[in-house]
Each structure stands twice: as structure tokens, then as C-alpha cells.
């Protein structure tokens, strides 16, 4: 939604505004998307706008990969991406935490060095033994914890958190008098005709994409049946049979032509909500 990989005039919000105008609807579209935000952060952003008196006619949520990736990487559903870094970096500007800040910089440097070296495993083992890199399971402030939770259960928790956010926004829409639309966007493994570039992107994070497919199946089983209640739309299969390139990177950002297709779908849905306007 933010528009990574697209020119400003070819992001989904920009194309949606253009599409609606071409269909005779006078529209002002504001892009509140942010890189890496999960659905809970989007709900918070909406609440802050409503608090300040900025009540929209319609709010659109476009989610999938960030909610799934955050849970997959941190083994906890419903928290922002890279939340462990916020824990580590909290209050680092305090002079009393100079030593911790230096250790964080040192650890970051060694992590980058390890990732670029053919001695990755050895470097990480030595660094952890010295207490510079975090262990996979540890405790205390700034710890990185990897819980032993099956992907099947984790996927269900992702969808439970997402469904809770749908309920919150739907309740806010009823109270404040605006419409809302929710979209579960396409991810790489939904596309059956991958280009060579897209195939390489998939291989970089194959375990993540498989987890995304698992989350997708839970969404279809637990959220899709209540489409009318939540104004929910599963567009994850939009590019399933598309042969042309769609994905521009391994984070599922799509091309400008892909953005245009999503904007067309959204425009059609919007016209059913606001007929005659």
C-alpha cells in the first residue's frame, strides 16, 4: 500500500483515486500505508486519526505478508516487525546506557560481518560465547526468544489477531459512521507462473512463503466465510495465472501493473458501497 518499487503516481492509492475519478466519483485518497507495518499498527493509526477528528468516508486495509512474516520471524503473533530491536534500543540515548549502546553497535557490526563471511557459523559461535551476539533462547532485557511453537498453531494465532483487528475497525466504523474494506493481498507462492527472477526471490525465503500459504488457508477457513460482516476480500489469487512479472522483490511488493489491477478491484468494491455518490 505504501508503494515500495512504484512511482508516486502508480501506487495503489494513487491509481485508485484515478480509477474512481474515471468512473465519475469525486475522490480524495490519502495514503497512510507505512513500510513494514502490521495490521495492529494500522488500527492504531486509524484510532489516532479518529481521535483528532479526521473521520473518513471509507478506510481500506491491505494486509497479509507483514502479519505473517512478523510472527514467523519472532514466533509471536500480533507484534510489530523487529520488535526485539525496539526492546534493545529503548532509552539508548540515556547517558547511563552508554555501555549498552556500544555493545549494541559492536554486535550489529559483527552480525553484518558474519553474514558476509564464509566463516558465518564459526563467527557466530565465537561471538555468542563471548556474549556479544544473543543466543537463540535467552532471558533478560533485550533478549531474543525463539519459542517452540508449531507453525500450524502460530498461523492460527496470526489470523486470530487479524480477525480481532477486523472486529475493532468494524465497531469503530459503526460508531463513527464510515465504511471499511479489508483486503488479504497476494503473496509469491500464490502465483503458479513465476518468472525466473520471482523464482529466485521465492528461494531466498522459501520457509516464510510456505508459512504464508498456511496462514492463507486459515484466513480462507476462518475469515472468508464472514466476508459480508467484515467487508473482507481475499485477493491473494489475483495473479495466480499471470505469466508476466508481478513481484519486484522478496517482500511481495508488486509492480505498477499489479498495483493497477488491485486498484481496479478496489474501485469496483467501493462503487457497491457508495452507489450514486
In a nutshell, what does this entry contain?
With 277 residues, this protein is mainly alpha-helical. 52% of the residues lie in helices and 5% in strands. A three-stranded parallel sheet has the order 1-2-3, sandwiched between helices.
Characterization of this structure:
This protein is mainly alpha-helical. The protein folds into 2 domains: 8-74 and 150-273, 3-Layer(aba) Sandwich (Rossmann fold); 83-129, no CATH class. The protein has 11 helices and 3 strands, in the order ααβαααααβαααβα. The chain has helices spanning 12-22, 39-51, 65-74, 83-89, 98-116, 120-129, 151-176, 196-204, 206-222, 227-230, 256-273, and strands spanning 58-63, 179-184, 232-234. It has a 3-stranded parallel beta sheet, sandwiched between helices. α3 (65-74) packs across α9, α5 (98-116) runs antiparallel to α6 and α7 (151-176) crosses α9 (206-222).
